[in-house]
Amino acid sequence: MQTAYIALGSNLGNRLARLRQAVSGLQRVAVLVRCSPVYEGPAHTLMPNDVSPDFLNAVVEIQTDLGGTDLLHACQEIERQGARCRRAPYAPRTIDLDILTFGELTCNTDQLILPHPRLQERRFVLQPWFDLAPETYIPSPIDSTVSAVLASCRDKINLVRTPWLLMNERNETST
Length: 175
Prior knowledge:
Helix content is 26%, strand content 25%. By secondary structure, it is an alpha+beta fold. A hairpin with a 4-residue loop joins strand 6 (107-108) and strand 7. Helix 1 (15-29) packs antiparallel against helix 2 (68-81). The chain is globular.
């Protein structure tokens, strides 16, 4: 079993329901260990004047027997079931799942790059991950802990920690 951390995000439709559906989908292919708090914050866009709905973001920790590419395909299937439409980079989306790390695996293929190539630039990923597992090691080329990467992150977006849970104390998806 490998430990993987997966970022979840949604800024279209019932965002919280989409995150919870993604958690349920992950529970069908892996052992869901923990979920971070849910944060709300502005969308990253390509153009400074683009207007896009705010995102809800969280990070989950899973244990899985799947390989990296198989986990990627499972995440993409969860996105498909959540009506994810890949129109353009940074476009609004019903659900987004990004594998941040997969054990200490590093890879750079056409399909999968690990660790996630832009995670150190994204406070909306680092803050919930910090709340979940601050001393998690992020392999090369980052080669640091989540807490150290968050401390040096230049992204200063305003995130608000919400009261919402993705799982209850019994590891069941919240309703």
